[in-house]
Amino acid sequence: MVEISGIMPVVDELDSAIIRELQADARQSNRELARKLGIAPSTCLERVRSLTHRGVIRGYHAEIDLTALNRGVQAFIAVQVRPLSRAVIDAFKDAVRGMPEVLAVFVLAGGDDFQLHVAVQDLDHLHSFLVDRLSKRREIVSFRSSVIYQREHNNVLSPLPAD
Amino acid sequence: MVEISGIMPVVDELDSAIIRELQADARQSNRELARKLGIAPSTCLERVRSLTHRGVIRGYHAEIDLTALNRGVQAFIAVQVRPLSRAVIDAFKDAVRGMPEVLAVFVLAGGDDFQLHVAVQDLDHLHSFLVDRLSKRREIVSFRSSVIYQREHNNVLSPLPAD
DNA sequence: TTTGAAAGACGATCGGA
DNA sequence: TCCGATCGTCTTTCAAA
């Protein structure tokens, strides 16, 4: 008998359905969720608790219109840093993560070391962010920025098959 | 007198605080939210409704651990398509948006036309996604993929100052 | 694990300030 | 616009299967 359980993310069909529903609408009531899945509310609550405790559900977040946050311009910034040591990587990552303009930081393999996703007021602020703030960091050896015209993201992700 | 209201996203201090709280935890009760902000629950409810109606709050989504969804490998794929017409752009965007591997599609200005953010089971599946599915599309003239080692994203975004 | 029942907490409405 | 009272619904717990 193989021990697969513990705090492992073993997600069955019912868990998957809960995950799907809560990705689509995190604020629907536990009763409505239970009704959709054909189970008792108490069962549903226990499932959601278990998923949360196991780390499968990491949180619930409101999605806010970026223009309402005065962030009409988005861009990607691909960055190369040197030397490519853990200390430099972690320091850079922590620094940019704390900047209010930065939505996300990605540590990459390959040509570029980082990709930053930023959202700012307008092109002037993008430029000043690049020139006045980012380029001040000495570990950066190059960066390229690409303005984002449109963004479409999939809020509801399904588990992929094992294959 | 200038007309600024209507269905415009005029967000005051209280709205900002609500937005901040609901980005951090979308499932907290209306009462708890009201208590944190020092307002009556009925007031809080009305504010949240107004923000939703005005399109400032776009939805509430559970954040799910990608490894639990059997998506241990993430990557960016920068794509160039030709001809660069609206028809081609929209067709490509709609096609990739519907692929289960794709978390997000970005339409870019500059060197590349698109950036795809994908999450798949492993490197083998990334390879087969690129070779067997993506490269089948005739409008693609080139693509480069970068594996993502780490991703850190900021769930709570503040409004930026007007300046 | 799942369930139904019970108790307490919450969402939603509305009249008044 | 905000608030407090009210009603109906919901979350949460728990003992049992």
Automatic annotation (TrEMBL), chains A, B:
Gene Ontology cellular component terms for the protein in this record: cytosol
PROSITE patterns: HTH_ASNC_2 (PS50956)
Keyword set includes Heme: no
Pfam family, one: HTH_AsnC-type
Molecular function terms, GO-annotated: sequence-specific DNA binding
Keyword field: DNA-binding, Transcription, Transcription regulation
Listed InterPro entries: AsnC-type_HTH_dom, Dimeric_a/b-barrel, Tscrpt_reg_AsnC-like, Tscrpt_reg_AsnC/Lrp_C, WH-like_DNA-bd_sf, WH_DNA-bd_sf
BP GO terms, sorted: response to amino acid
UniProt keyword annotation of DNA-binding present: yes
Matching Gene3D superfamilies: 3.30.70.920, Winged helix-like DNA-binding domain superfamily/Winged helix DNA-binding domain
Positions of the HTH asnC-type domain: 11-72
PANTHER family: LEUCINE-RESPONSIVE REGULATORY PROTEIN, POSSIBLE TRANSCRIPTIONAL REGULATORY PROTEIN (PROBABLY LRP_ASNC-FAMILY)
Descriptive protein name: DNA-binding transcriptional regulator, Lrp family
Organism: Saccharopolyspora kobensis
